[in-house]
Amino acid sequence: MKIIAVIPARYEASRFPGKLMQLLGEKTVIATTYENVVETKLFDEVFVATDSEIIFNEVRSIGGNAMMTSQHETGSDRIAEAVSTIDCDIVINVQGDEPFLKTEPLKQLIEVFKNDVEEKISLASLKIKLKDQEEIENSNNVKVITDREGFALYFSRSVIPYPRETAIKAEYFKHIGVYAFRKNALLNFANLPMSPLEIAEKIECIRYLEYGMKIKMIETDFVGVGIDVPEDLEKAREILKKQDSSPKFT
């Protein structure tokens, strides 16, 4: 089973343009993430897929693998273009703005497919329990609900489940945008039109659900910082100050 990692990266992020080229210590966010993914030694190959010459040149400047793609609405569509000519079985999508992701959750995602002998699972992803009410209500945090076997039922920026019955304390989980795909599921995804739900929520994995694909969710307990807005970058820099070197996957 050949497993590769692809980091989709665009410069013009809607909420924080140029965020991947911001500095974390002495390195940019995208350089930090790329080097940390390589250092996990979990993957046969690691690539950055981008439509930005700035990001492409940054990755190449540190000796990394980068490929140019056309413009895409979602990271999955970008990765699908990138891997269409690459021989592989499983593709891990690591977000370029998640520099503090740990190795163990990546291993868990890979294990999902090693154990799925009947190949019923199209993709796997991560979730982490939310406890702070402000974080639960934050629309930047995509929430996910699952069935009893851990398969995703729906993703939303709204609070799901809605706590109408207050006698029972509901659990809330944040979706962490790290995906592991079967290559064929990823390529099929890219040929499917966006649905109204995906467009309304701006959550690409809803497209998988609407077309009947199974998404296995793995609960993790790591606390990282996804850099979505400038305030997140400051949080990441504060974390880095407490470390002796660049943030590492551990």
UniProtKB/TrEMBL annotation:
Q: Which reaction does it catalyse?
A: 3-deoxy-alpha-D-manno-oct-2-ulosonate + CTP = CMP-3-deoxy-beta-D-manno-octulosonate + diphosphate
Q: In which pathway does it act?
A: Nucleotide-sugar biosynthesis; CMP-3-deoxy-D-manno-octulosonate biosynthesis; CMP-3-deoxy-D-manno-octulosonate from 3-deoxy-D-manno-octulosonate and CTP: step 1/1
* Entry EC no(s): 2.7.7.38
Under the cellular component aspect of Gene Ontology, which terms does the record hold? Answer: cytosol
Its top-level enzyme class, in one word, is transferase
Task: Tell me which UniProt keywords the record has, alphabetically.
Answer: Cytoplasm, Lipopolysaccharide biosynthesis, Nucleotidyltransferase, Transferase
Q: Which GO terms describe its biological process?
A: CMP-keto-3-deoxy-D-manno-octulosonic acid biosynthetic process; lipopolysaccharide biosynthetic process
Q: Which CDD domains match?
A: CMP-KDO-Synthetase
GO molecular function terms noted in the UniProt entry: 3-deoxy-manno-octulosonate cytidylyltransferase activity
Q: InterPro entries under this entry?
A: Cytidylyl_trans, KdsB, Nucleotide-diphossugar_trans
Q: Where in the cell is it found?
A: Cytoplasm
Q: Which Pfam families match?
A: CTP_transf_3
Taxonomic superkingdom: Bacteria
Q: Does the keyword Cytoplasm apply?
A: yes
Record's keyword annotation contains Signal: no
- Principal subcellular localisation of the protein: cytoplasm
What family classification does the UniProt entry report for this protein? Belongs to the KdsB family.
PANTHER family named among the record's database cross-references: 3-DEOXY-MANNO-OCTULOSONATE CYTIDYLYLTRANSFERASE, 3-DEOXY-MANNO-OCTULOSONATE CYTIDYLYLTRANSFERASE, MITOCHONDRIAL
What HAMAP family has UniProt attached to this entry? KdsB
Which NCBIfam families does its entry note?
Answer: kdsB (TIGR00466), PRK05450.1-3 (NF003950), PRK05450.1-5 (NF003952), PRK13368.1 (NF009905)
Protein role: Activates KDO (a required 8-carbon sugar) for incorporation into bacterial lipopolysaccharide in Gram-negative bacteria.
| Designated name of the protein | 3-deoxy-manno-octulosonate cytidylyltransferase
